[in-house]
Amino acid sequence: MLGHDNNDAPRLQAMVVQACAEQQPLRVVGQASKARWLPPMSDAAQMLSVSEHVGIEHYAPDELVVTVRAGTPLAQLRSVLAAQQQMLAFDPPEFDQLGTVGGAVASGLAGPARPWRGGVRDAVLGVELLNGMGERLSFGGQVMKNVAGYDLSRLQVGACGTLGVLLSVSLRLAPLPMVEATHRTSLASEPDAYAWLRRFAVGSLPVTALSFEPSLPDAPCYVRLSGPAAVVAAASVDLGPRVSDADLYWCSLRDQKHEFFGASEQMQELWRVSVPFGAADLALPYPTLVEWGGALRWVQLPHEHDPRELLTRVQTLGGHARRFGGGQGLGPIVPAAGQAVLQRLQAAFDSQHILNPGLDVHAN
Amino acid sequence: MDRSIVLQLLAAQLPADGLITDAAGLKPYETDGLTALREVPWAVALPETEAQVRDLLKICARHDVPVVARGAGTGLSGGARPIAQGIVLGLSRMRQILSIDPVSATARLQPGVRNLAISEAAAPHGLYYAPDPSSQIACSIGGNVAENAGGVHCLKYGLTVNNVLGLRVLTMDGELLELGGATLDDPGYDLLALMCGSEGMLGVVTEVTVRLLPTPPQRAVLLVAFAELAEAADAVSQIINIGIIPAGLEMMDQLAISAAENFVHAGYPLDAAAILLCELDGDEIELAESIRLVSDVLQQAGATQVRVARDPLEQQQFWAGRKNAFPAVGQLGPDYYCMDGTIPRAALSKVLTTIANKAASYGLRVANVFHAGDGNLHPLILYDANVPGQLEDAEALGDEILRLCVAVGGTVTGEHGVGLEKLNPMCSQFSSAELEQFFRVKAAFDPQELLNPGKGIPTLQRCSELGGMHVHGGHVPFKNLPRF
Ligand SMILES: Cc1cc2nc3c(=O)[nH]c(=O)nc-3n(C[C@H](O)[C@H](O)[C@H](O)COP(=O)(O)OP(=O)(O)OC[C@H]3O[C@@H](n4cnc5c(N)ncnc54)[C@H](O)[C@@H]3O)c2cc1C
């Protein structure tokens, strides 16, 4: 019932133990769905694929928690959860229809509902991992409240496998909303579209996704409402017509299938900009798509343009930007402080520096 | 290390009254909320700025002096108990609300700001700070971060870690880490999450940015009685199964009910085996809908009584019993010992029955207060410290309860932290390799081991000494270590 099940942990552990002894760099991958967002693999690195470590170890719908092996395809997990009227609140992307649970946690990317339903970190309750010395360790657990020891499970979120090979993760789930409706309205005549978005995003309406496409002629804005039927109906007054294939639309944003993302990679680079709620228009003449009620902005920057203009603007708005795709790495442009601490922390998990070396999650 | 030289150096960085060294002045700092554990520090430093904190840390690092950060001292696991020949870094004078930004719905706070003060300051903007530990009138946001504090509303709105957006943290050698900010995600390692719940052992929090939420337009509080504990536990799952996450969902057993009723006259039914308090929130339509759905489920689950509080006054009254449960139980006997395990909810009946049996075998009484929605159990063990052996019995029972929590798939501490108190039970939750991983993480931030040393993570030697008694995951722990 819960799909394909295979325990590949012993083999993975043996590989890491050996790699550690031989100081053999490893490239940890799930289904490689994010490969094109990562720097090219160096010849020296050996592939460590988690994709055969699959299956749902434990699912307790009553407790809103699932424990899943890292190689389990997201699509499979989603369908098992949906059968119980539950979901992953952070709604991770499935680029190219691929993606594993481990990859979703390691990359730390969340979907359109992020501001309202939480990010990856908010859902992670526990992990089982192999550190770079090949030790099999468990942190956190299957319960929401847990402060025993340092929170080394949430620390894995966004670490891109450099702090351990994820074997399984326990995730907090959310019930599927009783009713969901998406409405499309135009902000073309709105004097301050970003202020409008903010009012919706942090107001008390049951909003669970809010996008804006300022580069299209009628500047459409999509609002998704979720909750009991009466609540959704009451909140949708004045929000424009209801969109019929709304799930498709939100998935197209989440998985970057939307036309906006289809722009030729030869001509432009995709930038991901994260700003506080209520941050003003970037006011730059590049194609832009807005998610998260204004807090996330995608910008297509023509290759010949200097990104510093964008960076400066983003910094004045209190946010940060990073290049996304084009083989340039997931790393940010803004350097993080405390480099020495970060290096020691990485070494604390991986003394021989064999896990995804060359993948610098901090610097560009 | 020469105490007087260090104190001179510290005093030079602080305002005139910023360094306490006299016995009478040190007295209040000897202990935190776990008053059984006491220690007199060399001195208490009370900085007023981040720069002062940095300078103090640098001096202590240079002279190998241990430092214990302290917020309001309400912690329940000895996390802020001083170290002999060390200093206490009290953050109570850094209590400015630096900004409340209604546009981005965030607040920037110094670490000593009281939890409740945040919501009070945000209220004029129709906003509030969601995590609400019962100690919220006193405890500090810095202490909340260090303990990853929860509250009765964290089922729906999350713990501290889910509500903090940014931190400024100084490491023991005075290096500033700026983590997160007002944005929703941040590149790089999630040190922000790591700091939450790190019990002041990785760094000193000097500033916190939190997200604020819109104050719910309306709330409803339901008082629900059950003739069987197990029915109450099942009812919790059934509510969650229909897709409603209540703002709060708390459970109390018979002894806790009668204690609370005697103490605050909350209107609790004394003949119930268990009560649930269920808070729902939303606008008028949402609320009416949720009350209807939840009441139906509760009736089906066998509730003998479902009372919806008539007005805000009665809502407060219903909550007052729960919020005062600890002191109320305190009235039942001279002393009580508060546990803090978390268990998967499915194991609740089994765990409560086992606790009752174990308590009986010690001749002790246990009242149970339970954050039912998220499985966080607070058994309160009643004992009399003046009866020889009772404190030891209470501790032994507590230890058994925590190991039971681990055995059913839970954890030894849900929100109060390990501190000094739960070092032994930690040995039953983690393997030696896991403990060593914790120590390596600690060393990455504090190679000299000066920040709150000896707390949070038990040494391998300690666990190995206990090892004869404890069994982890069916295996004897630390097979390879010599027994002492
Ligand atoms: C009656 C009562 C009810 C309680 N109810 C709850 C509850 O419902 N939920 C809950 O979670 N807890 C509860 N607690 C426990 C306690 O209030 C929380 O753990 C709280 O977060 C501690 O805050 P504090 O400022 O008092 O910290 P302290 O007790 O001063 O310190 C706690 C720990 O944090 C560290 N610390 C403090 N400030 C800093 C800083 N700025 N930087 C780094 N480390 C720091 C200390 O070193 C120590 O390890 C309760 C306590 C009492 C007495």
Describe this structure in words.
The complex is a heterodimer of chains A (364) and B (484). Chain A folds into two domains: 9-176 and 343-354, Uridine Diphospho-n-acetylenolpyruvylglucosamine Reductase, domain 3 (2-Layer Sandwich), CATH 3.30.465.10; 179-323. Chain A is built from ten helices and 16 strands. Chain A has helices at residues 9-22, 74-83, 101-107, 114-117, 120-123, 193-201, 229-235, 246-254, 308-316, 339-349; strands spanning 26-29, 46-49, 56-60, 65-69, 86-87, 124-130, 136-140, 165-172, 174-175, 179-186, 207-212, 220-227, 268-274, 288-291, 296-302, 320-324. Chain A starts with 8 loop residues before the first helix and ends in a 15-residue tail after the last helix. Mean pLDDT of chain A is 90; it is low at 327-335. With 484 residues, chain B is α+β, with helices and mostly antiparallel strands. Chain B folds into five domains: 3-90, Uridine Diphospho-n-acetylenolpyruvylglucosamine Reductase, domain 2 (2-Layer Sandwich); 97-214, 2-Layer Sandwich (Uridine Diphospho-n-acetylenolpyruvylglucosamine Reductase, domain 3), CATH 3.30.465.10; 218-327, Alpha-Beta Plaits; 333-407, Alpha-Beta Plaits (2-Layer Sandwich), CATH 3.30.70.2740; 423-476, no CATH class. Chain B is built from 17 helices and 18 strands. Chain B has helices at 3-13, 23-26, 50-62, 115-122, 141-147, 154-157, 191-195, 229-241, 254-264, 284-300, 312-323, 325-330, 348-362, 390-407, 423-429, 432-445, 460-466; strands at residues 19-20, 43-45, 67-70, 87-90, 97-101, 106-109, 127-128, 164-170, 176-180, 204-211, 213-214, 218-226, 248-253, 274-282, 305-308, 335-338, 365-371, 376-383. In chain B, the strands form four sheets. In chain B, strands 15-12-14-13-17-18-16 form a seven-stranded antiparallel sheet, sandwiched between helices. In chain B, strands 5-6-10-8-9 form a five-stranded antiparallel sheet. In chain B, strands 1-2-4-3 form a four-stranded mixed sheet, with helices on one face. In chain B, a hairpin with a 5-residue loop joins β8 (164-170) and β9 (176-180). Chain B is globular. The site of flavin-adenine dinucleotide has 36 residues of chain B, from β3, α5 and β10.
